[in-house]
Design the sequence.
């Protein structure tokens, strides 16, 4: 059973019930449908990763926005203060993400974050070359990106065993 399709059907039915197809009604239908399906999961006997993957997507979105704001403040501080803390460097980061969608998402999230920019993915798709504005310790920058954005993307896309 495709739980996402059932949840979307529930949200559309919810909107028909209220005769309103705005974002608030559809969103509340999705949230209510998620809750109902989660509660009914033991009765259906299906063990789906849908519920955990939804959580991982929410986590990715929230944590990316936090990183976006935090890095914006750091870059803004460096621009506005007379003392410049920038120590730019080109870094090669090994990639754990395997799919094309995962690589695209990781590289775009890195490029969207102020202070970092994806430059190139190697031909074998195992290394990402990036520019970091604050790279006093390139290994720490690489570790932070791998433990942060790359891991969040891997979890959200389900590229590793969940559990």
Sequence:
């Amino acid at each position: 059973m495709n739980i996402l399709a059932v949840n979307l059907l529930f949200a559309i039915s919810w909107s028909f019930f209220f005769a309103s197809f705005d974002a608030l009604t559809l969103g509340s239908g999705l949230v209510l449908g998620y809750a109902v399906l989660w509660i009914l999961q033991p009765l259906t006997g299906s063990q789906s990763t849908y519920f955990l993957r939804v959580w991982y997507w929410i986590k990715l979105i929230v944590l990316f926005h936090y990183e976006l704001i935090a890095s914006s403040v750091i870059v803004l501080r460096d621009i506005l203060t007379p003392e410049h803390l920038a120590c730019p460097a080109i870094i090669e980061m090994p990639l754990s993400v395997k799919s094309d969608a995962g690589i695209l998402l990781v590289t775009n999230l890195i490029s969207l974050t102020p202070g970092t920019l994806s430059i190139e993915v190697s031909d074998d798709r195992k290394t990402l070359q990036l520019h970091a504005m604050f790279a006093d310790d390139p290994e720490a920058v690489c570790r932070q990106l791998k433990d942060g954005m790359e891991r969040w993307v891997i979890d959200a896309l389900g590229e590793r065993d969940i559990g």
